[in-house]
Every structure is written in structure tokens, then in C-alpha cells.
């Protein structure tokens, strides 16, 4: 059993997709260990996306992620880190397969930043780091 960290991003909340995303998680059988609505700050994003802060599109990510509230949570289950990534689909919704969250609910945008509904930790180390960052130890 392992834990992963997820976000339903501002586009997901604004478009009333919270229920649809949580429903997929529940149908899959993963346990929702924590769930909370938050307004994101640049300070936490700078840490969350520490590997992206120097990229040219990073300011667009900050604008995107702070346009409205997000839903954050922790999922628990067997292989949940990679399974949740598969459920999300490819980062660019244009490449995301039908059946995935990004492939079913998003399309590619041309405003410089990829609006793709959800986030999920990409490995065990990221999951532990992100859970500690957003929820504390
Ligand atoms: N992103 C973007 N342009 C890029 C790469 C990433 O706008 O060229 C945004 C996008 O919202 C993505 C997030 O930054 O989900 C984090 O990027 P990462 O490569 O970690 O993708 P993810 O893990 O979310 O699939
Ligand atoms: Mg990532």
C-alpha cells in the first residue's frame, strides 16, 4: 500500500468536474484519505513545482493555478502512484487517450500553459514530499 497526492486544478473545479473525478477514484477502489478545498498561493506552488520555476512557462502555471480554488487530497491503495498517473493521462490533453481524465475532459490549449484538470505525484519521493508540503508531516 502506498499514498499519492492529487489536485483537482482550478479548471476542474470551475467546470464542475470535482464529482466526476472523485467518482472515478471511488469506482477504481482507491481510498480517499484526505480531501480539502484550498486557494493556492504562489509560495506553495514555487515549492510544489520547484523543478519548473525556471522554465519560461512557469508564470503561466502560477496564473492558471491561482485563478480559483483547487481540491487537494491523498489517495491510498496498491500501486496508486502509477495507477493515478495512468488514470490522469498524458500531460498534454492533446496526447491523452480517451478513457483518461485528461483525455475525456480536456483539450489542448494555446495560451502557453497546459490546463489539464488534475495533478498526481510522479514517484514515491514526490508523493512524500508533496504530502508533507500541502498537509504537513
Ligand atoms: N505545464 C505546462 N507546459 C509545459 C509543461 C507543463 O503548462 O510545457 C504545466 C501543466 O499544467 C503540467 C504542469 O505544468 O500539468 C506540471 O508539469 P509536469 O511536466 O510535471 O506534468 P504532469 O506531471 O502534471 O503531467
Ligand atoms: Mg509532474
Automatic annotation (TrEMBL):
Protein name from the UniProt record: Nucleoside diphosphate kinase
Residues forming the catalytic site: 119
Pfam name, any one: NDK
EC number assigned by the record: 2.7.4.6
Annotated keywords: ATP-binding, Cytoplasm, Kinase, Magnesium, Metal-binding, Nucleotide metabolism, Nucleotide-binding, Phosphoprotein, Transferase
PANTHER family on file: NUCLEOSIDE DIPHOSPHATE KINASE
Family: Belongs to the NDK family.
Single annotated GO MF: nucleoside diphosphate kinase activity
Domain Nucleoside diphosphate kinase-like, residue spans: 1-137
Top-level taxonomic group: Bacteria
Signal peptide feature range: none
Residues that coordinate or bind ATP: 9, 57, 85, 91, 102, 116
Primary role: Major role in the synthesis of nucleoside triphosphates other than ATP. The ATP gamma phosphate is transferred to the NDP beta phosphate via a ping-pong mechanism, using a phosphorylated active-site intermediate.
Subcellular localization(s) per the UniProt record: Cytoplasm
Reaction catalyzed: a ribonucleoside 5'-diphosphate + ATP = a ribonucleoside 5'-triphosphate + ADP; a 2'-deoxyribonucleoside 5'-diphosphate + ATP = a 2'-deoxyribonucleoside 5'-triphosphate + ADP
HAMAP family: NDP_kinase
Cofactor(s) in the UniProt record: Mg(2+)
Gene Ontology BP annotations: CTP biosynthetic process; GTP biosynthetic process; UTP biosynthetic process
CDD domains: NDPk_I
Top-rank EC class of the record's enzyme: transferase
Amino acid at each position: 500500500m502506498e499514498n499519492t497526492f492529487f489536485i483537482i486544478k482550478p479548471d476542474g473545479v470551475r467546470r464542475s468536474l470535482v464529482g466526476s473525478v472523485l467518482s472515478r477514484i471511488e469506482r477504481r477502489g482507491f481510498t480517499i484519505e484526505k480531501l480539502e478545498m484550498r486557494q493556492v498561493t504562489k509560495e506553495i506552488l514555487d515549492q510544489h513545482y520547484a523543478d519548473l520555476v525556471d522554465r519560461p512557462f512557469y508564470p503561466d502555471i502560477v496564473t492558471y493555478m491561482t485563478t480559483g480554488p483547487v481540491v487537494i487530497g491523498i489517495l491510498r491503495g496498491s500501486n496508486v502512484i502509477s495507477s493515478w498517473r495512468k488514470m490522469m493521462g498524458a500531460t498534454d490533453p492533446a496526447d491523452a487517450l480517451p478513457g483518461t481524465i485528461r483525455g475525456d475532459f480536456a483539450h489542448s490549449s494555446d495560451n502557453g500553459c497546459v490546463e489539464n484538470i488534475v495533478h498526481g505525484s510522479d514517484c514515491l519521493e514526490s508523493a512524500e514530499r508533496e504530502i508533507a508540503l500541502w498537509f504537513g508531516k
